[in-house]
Amino acid sequence: MSSINGCGFRRSAGSFLLFMALCLLAGCGGGGGGTTGTANNGSTATPSNESVGTPGNGSTETTSNGGTGTTSSGGAGATNTGSPTSNGGTGTTGNDSTNVSVQASGSTLYQANCQGCHQPLASSTKLNKTAAEIQAAITANTGGMGSLATLSAGEIQSIADALKTTEAIPSFNNTNSDVFQLNGSAVLSNNNIRLTPNEQYTAGSAFLANPFTLGSNFVFNAYFNFTLGAGGRSNRHADGFVFALQTVSSKAGATGGNLGFGGINPSFGVEFDTFKNDTNNDPDNNHVAIVTNGSVQHAAFAPVTPSVIMSDGGTYHVWIDYDGATVEVHMNTTNDRSTSNLLLAQTIDLKGIFSTQYVYFGFTGATGIDSQTQDVGAFYLTSNYQTGGFSPAP
């Protein structure tokens, strides 16, 4: 990295030992997701407030969170005596340390090898340099960078990931889907990330495999599109999904209730909810809302215009923009932001939520006794804030 302006900066033995110690503490190379059905904060999973259920009233959606004996909300008060889990009991936990070590590796390696010449990571003069560019500089010994030849390909990739400020994925396929870590019921399906199938009691999440570096003011622009498909019994649709930022792990979520977002703390999210849960202060079964720190108990929400039914099988385009003080959510039936509807604008302090600028962006989703397919078809993200949003050209 320092090679790019001819400034060699060799890792000291102390830095290397510090890095190795951090890796050992964080569980470098360890497997993720060995724990079954535990909450993201490492505590024992408990049924969410969506899984309370009033027998026979047909009104309260039930979502499993790894608990046993969830009550059915339909029929004449019949009780589901099974033990549904979010994904057959295989949902990985949010406190998994595997990708936390990736975060420490990228930032720590940058600090040891590059910061002396190129400023701290968030304001680096080499943002968006690729692994290939870094490797080429080392190979050519530009500015003495040959001294860093002991860096592995994985370490160089971690540095490049830490320097990245933009993601642009017009569709998901076998060549780019590895940008995201898929958890629980989430799978790659027809160039989409499918968070949940049209099955009861599933939960899935998809987060960037490596943390995304936000600038000192935490600004960002994001764009994605989504399609909520076939519904469950009597074509009832549930539950919805969350666009989420969190610093726990790329394997967070996918543990069941609360749209897969429950228990991820610290976190910030925008939920797209298709089922009315009175206990969550839901205004209706077709709304967006701001949610934080693993709770879907929201005070700031906005019903979606009656002309747009999010679960009607159509593809909807969303822009989420944060200027350091206010988050705005726009939606449209095309990818033209200039004609989109502003659904929500809310003042929020992301610095007050997160203590680090290295954040996992992604999505969580869940189903309960009612269900739907939930697909994300494209994803664009930048920390170089742009007035008017960031998205593919219409």
TrEMBL record:
Location of the region described as Disordered in the Swiss-Prot/TrEMBL record: 39-100
Keywords in alphabetical order: Heme, Iron, Lectin, Metal-binding, Signal
UniProt KW Glycoprotein keyword: no
Biased composition (Low complexity): 53-65, 78-100
Molecular function per GO: carbohydrate binding; electron transfer activity; heme binding; metal ion binding
Domain Cytochrome c: 104-160
Domain Legume lectin: 170-384
Biased composition annotated in UniProt, kind: Gly residues: 66-77
InterPro entries cross-referenced by the UniProt entry: ConA-like_dom_sf (IPR013320), Cyt_c-like_dom (IPR009056), Cyt_c-like_dom_sf (IPR036909), Lectin_L-type_dom (IPR056573), Legume_lectin_dom (IPR001220), Leguminous_Lectin (IPR050258)
Signal peptide: 1-26
Domain of life the protein comes from: Bacteria
Entry-linked Pfam families: Cytochrome_CBB3 (PF13442), Lectin_legB (PF00139)
Protein name: Cytochrome c, 1 heme-binding site, L-type lectin domain-containing
